[in-house]
Amino acid sequence: MSTKRHILIADDDMNVIAGLSFLLQDEGYEVSCVTTAQAALEKVKVQSFDCALLDMNFAKDTTSGQEGIALITELRQLDSLLPIVMMTGWATIELAVDAMRSGAQDFVQKPWDNERLLHTLQTHITLAQSQGLNERLKQQNQLLQQAAHPQLRSDIVACSQPMQQLLTQLEQLAQSDMSILLTGDNGTGKSMLAAYVHRCSARAEQPFVTANMGAIVENLFESEMFGHVRGAFTDAKAARAGRFEMARHGTLFLDEIANIPLSQQAKLLSVLEERKFEAVGSSQSQVADVRVISATNGDLPAQIQAGTFRQDLYYRLNTVELRVPSLRERVEDITPLTEHFLRQFAAKYNKPVPQLSEAAQVALRHYDWPGNIRELRHVLERALFVCRAAQITPDDLAITAGDGVVANVDDPNLTLDEIEQAVLRQRLRHHQGNASETARSLGLSRSGYYRRLAKFGLAEHE
Predict the structure, then answer these.
(1) 13 shares its domain with 93
(2) 103/209 same-domain check
(3) Is 237 found in the same domain as 96?
(4) What CATH number corresponds to the domain at position 84?
(5) Which domain holds residue 112?
(6) Fewer Cβ within 10 Å of end Cβ, the chain: N or C?
(7) pLDDT for residue 408 is more than 60
C-alpha cells in the first residue's frame, strides 16, 4: 500500500524524462512518464496525480509553447485541482504569463535547479491538498445540509401541549453545548428537531451534519466518522473528510445511535471524551469542536443490560434525554399537519389543494399512526392522487378510524408493506395478540413474526 506522492511527467525528450525520474524517485515520489500531450490527457482521465510536470513544447512545435497552453486548458477541464508546473528551454515572460493565465501554478526554465524544482513541487502539492480538502468539505457539507429543516418555531406544526413543551425545552438547551439524546418512535420527527436545536444555537451559521449510524458499514466506521488520508487503505485514492471534520464548529447529529456496533462504540466514546480524533492513516490529532445530538427509537437501557451498548457511552450522549411524543399523543396536531402536508404536496405536483371531509378528519384523528408523521405524509400523498373530487374521504385515506387497520388490502394503490401490515394487524386482532397462533396462521417462524412486528412498530395487543 503506497502513500507516495504521484507525479506525472510529460516531455518529448527522453533525457529530460530520465533526469527528472531519477531525481524525483530518489526524493520518494512515484513517477509516471509520457512523451506526448495526448498521452498526458489519457493518463489523467484514468488516474489521479498529485502534480503534473509538463513540457511547453512537443513534436509539432519547438518554441511557441502553444501545445503546452492547450494541454493546460484540457487538463484543467479534467481536473480543476491538479497542480500543474510547466517547463521549457525557451522561456519568455509572455509565455510564463500565458501559462499561468491558462491554469498552471508555476513555471520552471530548463535546465532546472534541483532544489528549486523540488521546493516548487512540494509547495504546490501542499497547497492543492489544502484547497482540495476545503472543496470536498464544501461539497460534502452541501450534500449533508438539511435545507428543508425549519429555522423558526413558526415553521414547525406544533399546536399540542406536549410539542409546545418540548420545543421550549429544546430552545433553552440550544443555548448550551450539552449533548442531547432524543428518543421516541420511528417517524416522530427527531431529525427535524435536532436541526431546529442547531438553528436556535450559537452554532447556527456553521454546518449541521447528519450521520445515520445504522447505515454505516462496520469496517468503514472510522473512515466515515473521522476521515482518512490518501493511501490509508487499498481504496483510499484520495483524502476524505469524516463527519466530525465536516461538522467542525457546528452540530453533528448521530441518528439511529443504538445501531453502532459494539466494537466501534469505544472509539466514539474516546472522541467524545477527549474532544480529539485522528483521520485513518494519520498521526495528526484534530480538535472535535462539535455539538453532538443523537437519536434512537431503541431501548438503550435494555441494550446496556444485554451488553450490546456501553453504559459509559450512553451517559456521555445523554447529558439531557428528551422523548419526542408519538403522533397519537399529540392528536391536536393531526389536522394542522394534514393541512400542511396537503398544501406541500399540491404545490409539488401542481394540483389544487383538496379539502378534507369531516368523516376523513375523524378517521385521521382516531387512527393510531404506528408510523407517526412519516406514515401521515405517505397517506396524504397517496390520497391526493386517488381522490376523485375536490374533497378527500375516508375511502381515499384507506384507513379505518378507531383501529388502525388498512381498509382494503385489494386497493391497487397500496404498497406491499402496507398490505403486509394490514394483514398482520387483522391476524393479531383475530388471535387476540397470541404470538404463537398469529405466527402459525401466517406461516411465520417466531423470529420472523417478531421481526415484522418491529418493522411496522406494532405491539402484540393490536
Answers:
(1) yes
(2) no
(3) no
(4) 3.40.50.2300
(5) 6-133
(6) N
(7) no
Read off the pLDDT of residues 202-233 as tens digits, 9 standing for 90 and up: 999 999 999 988 888 888 888 889 988 887 77
**Alpha carbons 149 and 250: distance in angstroms, whole number:** 15
SS (H, E, C) 389-406: CCEECHHHHCECCCCCCE
Is residue 61 scored above 90 in pLDDT?
no
DSSP string, 237-290: -S-B--HHHHTTTSEEEEETGGGS-HHHHHHHHHHHHHSEEE-BT---EEE---
Q: Which amino acid is at 9?
A: I
The 106-109 sheet, strands edge to edge: 30-34, 6-10, 51-55, 84-88, 106-109
Q: Is 145 helix (H, G, I), strand (E, B) or coil?
A: coil
Residues 283 and 402 in one domain: no
Q: How far apart (Å, rounded) are the C-alpha atoms in residues 109 and 165?
A: 71
The answer to whether residues 178 and 299 belong to one domain is: yes
How far is the C-alpha of 241 from the C-alpha of 133, rounded, in Å? Answer: 7
Task: Considering only residues 291 and 385, tell me which one the structure prediction assigns the higher pLDDT.
Answer: 291
Q: Which amino acid is at 192?
A: M
C-alpha cell at 198: 442547531
Domain harbouring 406, CATH code: 1.10.8.60
Contact (CB, 8 A) for 409 and 399: no
Pairwise CA distance, residues 6 & 50, whole Å? 5
Instruction: Quote the pLDDT of residue 418.
Output: 65
Are residues 166 and 265 part of one domain?
yes
Are 335 and 287 part of one and the same domain? Answer: no
Total structural domains in the chain? 3
DSSP H or E run through 347: helix 334-349
List the one residue out of 73, 129, 78, 83 whose CA is nearest residue 106: 83
Contact 56, 88 (CB under 8 A): yes
User: The whole model's pTM is what?
Assistant: 0.58
Mean pLDDT value of segment 318-340: 92
Query: 21: burial class by Cβ within 10 Å (0-12, 13-18, 19+)?
Result: middle
- 320 and 171 in one domain? yes
Residues in the chain: 462
Query: When comparing pLDDT for 220 and 292, which is higher?
Result: 292
Residue 3: pLDDT band with limits 50, 70, 90:
low
